[in-house]
Amino acid sequence: MHATITSSSTGARSRVLRWRVVDIVVASVVAVASGVVFWVWGVVQNPMSGPVGAALPGYQGILNGPWLFAGVLVALIVRKPGAALFGEVVAATVSALIGTQWGFATLLSGLVQGLGAEIVFALFLYANWRLVPALLAGAGAGIAESILDLLYWYPGSKPEFAITYAITTTISGIVFAGLGSWLLVRALAATGALSRFAAGRESRTSRA
Question: Which residues cross the membrane (predicted)?
């Protein structure tokens, strides 16, 4: 996984987006930990989804956000092409290996969610890792997941349900995956845990 982007502006340095060994290691550790969180959230969320959906059809989408954060989080830390997809797929795989009631669909969701976030960061040319791109990446993961769910789990659902589900899933993605991941990266950077990454160096610069 590698790419190189060279700025055409005078005096600008080439920005190399090739994955380093430390990127792979840290991305893997974060993704595996996220997979454990996915599994725990599956245990917690499952009993809530039914009652919420029965009382407020479509609003169960608000519970989907905690499954969308791994890709955004890994991307904000590593800042390399493919990081969002890598983080979400690895996390989904770990969750599935531990054991979920959704089986293969867990891996499919991870792939779709990761692509939703990855596309957003790609649109920013992997050059902007601030709050707005993070929020949009969370929204992208939410939109992608809502489309998959409506096709896979809720085929033939009424338009009002589909719209509500898509909106609530997207909002949940913005809050949990977008804002939550951005805040977590800032907190980790402040401790010095990300000193090998641009996110950590930016944190030290902002405090200087």
Answer: 21-41, 61-78, 85-104, 110-127, 134-155, 161-185
